[in-house]
Amino acid sequence: MLRSPRRRQLLRAATHGTVLTLIGTLPRLAQAAQVVAVRVWPAADYTRVTLEHDNELSFSHMIVKDPHRLVVDIEGLQLNDAVRNLVSKITPNDPYIAQVRVGQNRPKVVRLVFDLKEEIKPQVFALQPVGEYKHRLVLDLYPSTPKDSLLALLQENKLDPAPKTGPGSTPLAPATSVEGANPATRPTPRTERAPSPGDEELILRNNRLITIALDPGHGGEDPGAIGQAGSYEKHVVLSIAQRLKRHIEQESQIRVMLTRDADYFVPLHVRVQKARRVQADLFVSLHADAFIKPDARGSSVFALSEQGATSTAARWLANKENAADLIGGVNINTRDAQLAKVLLDLSTTAQINDSLKLGKAVLREISGINRLHKNDVEQAGFAVLKAPDIPSILIETAFISNPEEEAKLNDEEYQERMARAILIGIKRYFAKNPPLARNKLAAL
Fold this sequence. Notes:
EC 3.5.1.28; Aminopeptidase; hydrolase; TAT_signal; MurNAc-LAA_cat; N-acetylmuramoyl-L-alanine amidase AmiC
């Protein structure tokens, strides 16, 4: 078939353009990736190793036994000081890694060999750039036999019994305002009230132990909000959670578990899973708020909403908190889609109603510690509050983006008072809403 001169011109131009495009991309494709940072997050749950790099790369891994080792080959990578620095990042208290060896296995292929303390089930995956992070290669080293959360909680309470409250014990002091706060912003001082009858009724009316899941937000790769003075939300809320845990352990009929007890990342759905595995009666997630304006201030309490957020700020905050999985780094290939759907779709009206009651009780108490950002419990679609069978609240203890409140969040006295106020709120909730008996827990 004869071709017109015009058709031949178009074909020639198209072919020329394709060649130019390919030539233009060759230098970028040929450029080896450079590791810019390595981080190691050891924890009892799992150890995470992160290699942050400036370009995409390929990788493979294998498990070798006798002795146990994890071997990772990274293609398109040249050995540099950042990679070598991984060796010094392994600490003696790492529960899974004894040591790591790095080397240039062959041109543009770096090999990492992790000598292991026990058999593991690794997850190795890549993350695209997000937030302040470039590309990341993530190695999650899980124990081959995951620990039973409920059994661990029972053993902790059996082997390390906490002092009991009762006649002769020192009562928990009511919440009061923080001394030295700005008088212009401090809430009107309230008269310290004596413990209400509800505190005693908590002991008398319960027919079983109450289990509370405390959830310090963020952790590991996800620092949360960062204050102007450099405070990390993940550190502040872990400290408050640990103080609250110690106070709860003084109660004779309440036991407590932390979704994380150190600086490591826990995906949002795993936090909910942990609470459900120990059959928690309450789920309390602790955070330190941030906003685009440094003058935002005050404490808040949130519950789940199935009908949209109660304010624009609540919606903005929920979206920010729900992005924690992107920053922290979730291996989407292993997420249980069916479970995720359950957590997203089956939250019930009863759970939300109970969460609002709990939130109001806690909000009342923390109003004596810090001014409130909102006087009522707000609602939004927080993913971490979506356990369908556990009353759940999220507490923003203060705005870490506000320099004055950032200083409060780092003050031990403020942390102590906040922890005590939350516990009093929880006790007042249970005084009016005693938990039902659970046959499984009774059998255990």
